[in-house]
RNA sequence: GCGCCCGUAGCUCAGUAGGAUAGAGCACCGGAUUUCUAAUCCGUAGGUCACAGGUUCGAAUCCUGUCGGGCGCGCCA
C-alpha cells in the first residue's frame, strides 16, 4: 500500500480516459508522470507534474491540461480538494478522514507496513566485509560490514531474494605471512624461545592462542622442519582460525553471511581456468605489452608481454593483467572467476561493498561482469569512505605498527552494537564519517540514535501509563484499530500521520538507490514529528496522549502512536538496531 | 599525466529515475522553562548549491569545461 503509487495510477488513468474522449491526444507517453509528496506541506498532500510533462506532446498550455485532469481527480472520494499552482502543478489535498484511516491500515499491517514486492523475488548477491583472514576486524571494516548487512535486509524487505556473501581472500602472499607468524607462535607454544616477531610478520597477540591450538593438535611434529614441510597445513589451520575469529567479530554486530566463498578453492579446483575460458571464447584475452603509466614511473618498471583481459572494450582505462611474472594468477584473475561463478549461480544483480581505497578496481570488475553476461547482469560497487574515530572531538590515536589498533570488538564493547550500527548508517556511504565515542552515547537530541530510540520508548511508556490511568484498558492492536480515529484532528497529529504514510515510499527509494542511510534520516525526521507533538503537550494539556476523563480520545491517540512505534521498530529492524521499550 | 568520488548556511551534513520560495542538526542571537510530558522547548537570522557554459517549460540534480579536496594508477590483496 503506497498512496503515491495509487495516485500516480489514478492520474494516468484519468489521462487515458481523456485521450479516449478526444480531449487529449492519443498515445501519450506517460512515463515521466509522477505523484509525490510536495516538499512544502502547504502545497497539499500529493502533487502531480502531469500537466507540465504533457505540454509538448499535447501541444497545449499546462494550465489547460491541468484543468482537464483536475476534474477527474475531484471525483475520487478520498480527495478533499484540488488546486492548480505554480507552473502547472496539480496539488491534491486528501480528506482528513482518509489520513486518519491510515492509522488503522498501519496497525493492521503492523511490522509489514512498508514491505513490498518491488523486487519480485529476484536474486541479488550482496558481497561485503571480505577481509583478508589475517587478523581480527578493525574499525575500518566496521562500516562496510554494517552497510552491507543493512542493505541486504533492506533489499529483502522489498521483496528481493538476497544472498549475503563473504569472499575469503585465502590464496595470496598475505596468507603465507599469516602462516609464518602462526608458526612462530606455535614454536613458542611447544617451548621454544622466540625473542621478537620479525618485521613483516604479524605481531598481534591474537595469534598466540592459534599457535597453542596448533600445538595441541599436532604436538611438536613441525619443530625444526623446513617451511615447505608445514606451510600448507599451517596456512589452512590459521586461515580457519582467523575466519572463526572474524565470524565471532561479525556476530557481535549481529552479522551473519549465507555464503563464505574461498578464493583458494578457485585456484585448486580449476575455477580460474573455467572463468577465463568464457572470456577466451569471446576473444577478450590476448598477450600484449602495456604502456607504462603516465606521470611517475614505478621504480622497477620493466616492459614485458603479459596475458591481458581486454577490459578497455567495456570502459576500463587499460587492459588488465591476469598472470604475474612468476606465472601465477593475479588477484584479478581469481576475481574474474569469482564473479563468473556468481553469475552462474543465477544472480543478475550483484552488489560489492568495498573500501574507498579500492575505487580504482571498480571498472575492471564491472567490465568482467558485462563481458561475461553480454550486459545482462549488473554489478554495483558501493564504496565506503573512512571512519574517523574521535573522543570528545579529538582524534583517537592508533598505532598500527605494534599491531595495537582499535578493533571492531573494542568499539562494540564500548558503545554497544545498536549504537555502532545506527551511527555507521548516518552518512551516505561515500562520505567520510566521524564517530565520536562521547557523542554517540550522549542522551540528547543531538544524538540521532538516542532521539529515535527515545521516541519508541516514549510510546511504550505512554501505553503503560494509559493502562494504569484507565484500569485494565485494552491496548491490543485489535482494540486500537477500533478507536475513533476521527478525533485526531490537530494539525500536528495529522502531520505525524502524513509522515508515517511516507514510509513505504522511503523504503522503496532507499532500496532502489542501494542507500540504507535514507532509512536513518527518515526515522530521525519521523521521530522529530513525534517529539514535536509530545512537546506541544507541555503547553496544551488537551493535546497530551492520555486525557484522563476521555477514554475515547486516549484510545485514538494510542492507536496513532502505536502505529508510529511500528514504523520506528521496522525501520530500526532494517538497520539491525533493536528498538527499546524503556530507557 | 589519467581515472573514480566529492565540493550545498560559520561547522557537520541531508536532498539525483529533473520539479514550486534548496532543508536539518550544531554554533550564534532573542524569548520560554527549574519540570517527571525528565534526559529541554519555541522563534529569528543565516545561501550567486565551487565557478563558467549547455540541454529543458523547469537543474543542487543531467552534459561539457575550469578551479579546489580525497582515493587510486603494470605483476600486491
Brief rundown of the structure:
This protein is 49% helix and 12% strand. The chain has helices at 3-20, 50-58, 62-74, 96-109, 139-157, 173-189, 208-218, 227-252, 263-268, 271-281, 331-344, 362-373, 408-415, 417-424, 437-440, 448-469, 477-481, 491-501, 503-513, 517-539, 551-575; strands at 35-36, 46-48, 79-85, 89-94, 123-127, 161-168, 259-262, 285-289, 305-309, 320-321, 349-355, 378-384, 387-391, 394-395, 433-436.
Examine the secondary-structure arrangement and name the CATH architecture of the largest domain. Answer: 3-Layer(aba) Sandwich
Total helices: the number is: 21
Proportion of helical residues: 40-55%
Please give the alpha-carbon distance between the first and last residues.
Answer: 33 Å
The fold-level CATH name of the largest domain is Rossmann fold
Helix/strand/pairing category: alpha/beta
- Uncertain residue segments: none
How many individual domains?
4
State which percent range the strand residues make up.
Answer: 5-15%
Largest sheet: 5 strands, parallel
Strand order, sheet with most strands = 7-6-5-11-12
- The fourth-level CATH homologous superfamily of the largest domain is HUPs
Highest-level CATH class of the largest domain: Alpha Beta
What is the average of the pLDDT values? 93
Any idea what the radius of gyration is? Answer: 30 Å
Shape annotation: globular
Tell how many strands the DSSP assignment holds.
15
Amino acid at each position: 500500500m503506497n498512496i503515491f503509487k495509487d495516485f500516480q495510477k489514478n492520474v494516468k488513468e484519468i489521462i487515458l480516459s481523456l485521450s479516449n474522449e478526444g480531449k487529449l491526444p492519443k498515445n501519450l507517453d506517460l512515463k515521466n508522470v509522477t505523484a509525490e509528496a510536495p516538499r512544502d506541506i502547504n502545497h497539499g498532500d500529493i502533487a502531480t507534474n502531469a500537466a507540465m510533462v504533457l505540454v509538448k506532446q499535447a501541444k497545449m498550455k499546462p494550465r489547460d491540461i491541468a484543468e482537464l485532469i483536475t476534474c477527474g481527480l475531484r471525483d475520487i472520494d478520498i480527495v478533499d480538494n484540488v488546486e492548480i499552482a505554480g507552473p502547472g502543478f496539480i496539488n491534491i489535498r486528501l480528506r482528513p478522514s482518509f489520513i486518519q484511516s491510515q492509522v488503522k491500515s498501519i496497525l493492521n499491517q503492523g511490522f509489514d507496513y512498508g514491505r513490498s514486492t518491488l523486487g519480485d523475488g529476484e536474486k541479488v548477491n550482496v558481497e561485503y566485509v571480505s577481509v583478508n583472514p589475517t587478523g581480527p576486524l578493525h574499525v575500518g571494516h566496521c562500516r562496510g560490514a554494517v552497510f552491507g548487512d543493512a542493505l541486504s535486509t533492506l533489499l529483502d524487505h522489498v521483496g528481493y531474494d538476497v544472498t549475503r556473501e563473504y569472499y575469503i581472500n585465502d590464496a595470496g602472499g598475505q596468507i603465507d605471512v599469516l602462516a609464518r607468524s602462526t608458526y612462530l607462535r606455535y614454536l613458542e607454544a611447544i617451548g621454544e624461545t622466540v625473542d621478537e616477531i620479525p618485521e613483516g610478520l604479524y605481531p598481534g597477540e591474537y595469534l598466540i592462542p592459534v599457535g597453542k591450538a596448533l600445538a595441541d593438535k599436532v604436538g611438536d611434529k613441525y619443530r625444526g622442519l623446513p617451511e615447505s614441510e608445514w606451510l600448507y597445513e599451517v596456512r589452512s589451520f590459521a586461515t580457519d582460525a582467523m575466519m572463526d575469529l572474524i565470524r565471532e567479530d561479525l556476530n557481535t554486530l549481529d552479522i551473519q553471511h549465507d555464503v563464505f566463498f574461498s578464493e583458494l578453492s578457485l585456484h585448486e579446483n580449476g575455477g580460474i581456468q573455467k572463468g577465463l575460458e568464457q572470456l577466451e571464447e569471446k576473444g577478450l584475452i590476448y598477450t600484449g605489452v602495456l604502456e607504462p603509466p603516465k606521470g611517475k614511473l614505478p621504480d622497477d618498471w620493466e616492459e614485458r608481454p603479459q596475458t591481458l583481459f581486454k577490459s578497455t572494450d567495456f570502459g576500463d582505462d587499460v587492459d588488465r593483467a591476469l598472470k604475474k611474472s612468476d606465472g601465477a594468477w593475479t588477484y584479478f584473475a581469481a576475481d574474474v572467476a569469482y564473479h563468473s561463478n556468481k553469475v552462474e549461480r543465477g544472480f543478475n544483480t550483484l552488489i560489492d561493498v568495498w573500501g574507498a581505497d579500492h575505487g580504482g578496481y571498480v571498472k575492471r570488475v564491472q567490465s568482467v561482469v558485462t563481458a561475461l553476461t553480454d550486459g545482462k547482469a549488473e554489478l554495483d560497487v558501493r564504496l565506503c569512505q573512512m571512519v574517523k574515530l574521535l573522543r570528545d572531538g579529538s582524534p583517537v590515536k592508533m598505532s598500527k605498527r605494534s599491531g595495537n589498533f582499535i578493533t571492531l570488538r573494542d568499539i562494540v564493547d564500548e558503545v554497544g552494537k545498536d549504537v555502532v550500527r545506527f551511527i555507521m548508517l548516518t552518512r551516505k556511504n561515500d562520505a567520510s564519517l566521524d564517530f565520536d565515542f562521547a557523542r554517540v552515547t550522549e542522551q540528547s537530541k543531538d544524538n540521532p540514535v538516542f532521539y529515535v530510540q527515545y521516541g519508541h520508548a516514549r510510546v511504550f511508556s505512554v501505553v503503560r501509563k494509559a493502562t494504569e490511568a484507565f484500569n485494565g484498558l485494552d491496548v491490543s492492536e485489535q482494540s486500537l484499530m477500533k478507536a475513533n480515529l476521527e478525533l485526531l484532528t490537530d494539525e500536528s497529529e495529522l502531520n505525524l500521520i502524513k509522515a508515517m504514510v511516507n514510509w513505504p515510499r522511503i523504503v522503496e527509494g532507499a532500496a532502489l538507490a542501494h542507500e540504507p542511510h535514507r532509512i536513518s534520516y527518515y526515522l530521525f525526521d519521523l521521530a522529530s514529528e513525534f517529539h514535536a507533538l509530545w512537546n506541544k503537550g507541555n503547553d496544551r494539556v488537551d493535546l497530551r496522549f492520555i486525557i484522563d476523563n476521555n477514554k475515547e480520545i486516549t484510545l485514538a491517540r494510542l492507536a496513532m502512536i502505536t502505529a508510529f512505534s511500528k514504523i520506528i521498530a521496522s525501520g530500526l529492524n532494517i538497520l539491525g538496531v533493536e528498538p527499546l521499550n524503556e530507557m
